[in-house]
Design brief:
The chain has helices at residues 4-13, 17-38, 44-56, 58-64, 69-72, 77-107, 110-127, 139-142, 149-162, 164-181, 183-193, 199-220, 227-245, 251-279, 285-309, 315-336. By secondary structure, the protein is mostly helical. Helix content is 75%, strand content 0%. α1 (4-13) runs antiparallel to α15 (285-309) and α10 packs antiparallel against α14.
Length: 360
């Protein structure tokens, strides 16, 4: 969250954004590799500093790259499908990453699993060298007069605050991610509470597979819903499915409900990416994407912390709480978003780039 405004501002100001993106991906890989060899050996403050530095690259890895799609494809079907496929890739990684790390840990060691993850990030940096960064900004934005770095740092926050569609989206998804952050711990506790201590990983994998299927379905078949309504429906569906999974049902039924929750959650990321691209002005699009990703990562960390502090409570009650958070996120998004967004899927008129002095 701390680094997201600075990273987004640097991406927008640099004449060669390629260096910024490749540097972030490379720094992310280096941080993971250093942690793999320093945890338990180096002093704790050094390890924490490396983790903090590596985390500062997270918004570029999980949000900044997605902002490039708008400049690569024309508005309409191709861009919407591209964002759906982008969301599917994220969901696929959420399945493949933990599985690969777990397998490497079982076969070799946790250190080897960390080095494997560092290698994956380094491979991403190598693949990103082939992206056409020079064509990702419209000509008007590329020749817009640059303000001071201080003004650019505030511009992304001001844009999210002043443009109601972005404010509603950021508030709703961050609240939902507070629940998502605590879902893994809650699922493990729930499996142990019901006498199946090894089933927690299975249920989380089922959730991730459902999310992958949901995002692929949106990419393949465009639902007859506007993106705001798709986001609201996704939040509500995830909340209802998780609430049902908190009931005393069989393990198979619980797993099926986690698949259903993931199936509803998958389209949420697709709708989120599309709405950010539709409403963010070109001059601050990178800041909006990196800020959105940074805030969601931070919200997930806060959610994990809260669940850890409340781990003594019954796990079904914790899961009901996460379900209630998703339903509250849907209500918050519905209340805050512009009314024009709900009419036939039409987007509200894009607001001009706000002045940094408007930040409350």
């Amino acid at each position: 969250m701390i680094a997201a405004p600075l990273v987004g501002a640097l991406v927008s100001r640099m004449r060669r954004p390629r260096l910024c993106y490749l540097g972030a991906l490379g720094g992310f890989a280096c941080a993971i590799a250093v942690l793999a060899t320093s945890v338990g050996r180096a002093p704790a403050p050094v390890t924490l500093a490396v983790a903090l530095a590596g985390g500062s690259f997270g918004p570029v890895v999980s949000g900044g790259l997605s902002s490039l799609i708008t400049g690569l494809l024309p508005a309409g079907g191709p861009r919407e499908r591209a964002y759906a496929l982008d969301a599917a890739v994220y969901n696929a990684a959420s399945v493949a990453g933990p599985a690969a790390a777990g397998l490497a840990t079982a076969v070799a060691s946790p250190g080897a699993a960390m080095l494997l993850l560092a290698g994956a990030a380094a491979t991403a940096a190598a693949l990103a060298t082939g992206l056409p960064y020079g064509r990702t900004q419209p000509a008007a934005a590329a020749h817009a007069p640059a303000g001071t770095l201080r003004a650019d740092l505030a511009a992304g926050l001001v844009t999210i605050w002043r443009i109601r569609a972005l404010r509603a989206l950021t508030a709703g998804t961050c609240l939902a991610f507070g629940g998502v952050g605590g879902l893994t711990t809650t699922t493990v506790l729930l499996a142990g509470h019901r006498g199946h201590p090894g089933a927690g990983g299975i249920m989380m994998t089922a959730f991730a597979l459902g999310a992958l299927a949901g995002s692929l379905a949106v990419a393949r078949w465009r639902p007859p819903l506007s993106d705001p309504r798709l986001a609201t429906l996704a939040l509500c569906g995830t909340g209802v499915a998780l609430a049902a999974a908190a009931l005393p049902v069989s393990p198979k039924a619980t797993t099926a409900l986690f698949v259903l929750a993931g199936l509803c959650d998958g389209p949420l990321l697709t709708a989120t990416l599309r709405l950010r691209a539709a409403h963010a002005p070109a001059q601050v699009r990178a800041q909006v994407f990196t800020l959105g990703a940074g805030l969601k990562i931070t919200a997930a960390a806060c959610g994990a912390t809260l669940v850890g502090a409340a781990a003594a409570l019954p796990p079904p009650l914790l899961l009901l709480g996460i379900a209630a958070v998703h339903l509250a996120a849907a209500l918050l998004y519905t209340v805050v978003r512009p009314r024009e967004e709900g009419l036939g899927g039409a987007a509200c008129p894009r607001a001009p780039l706000p002045d940094a002095r408007a930040l409350p």
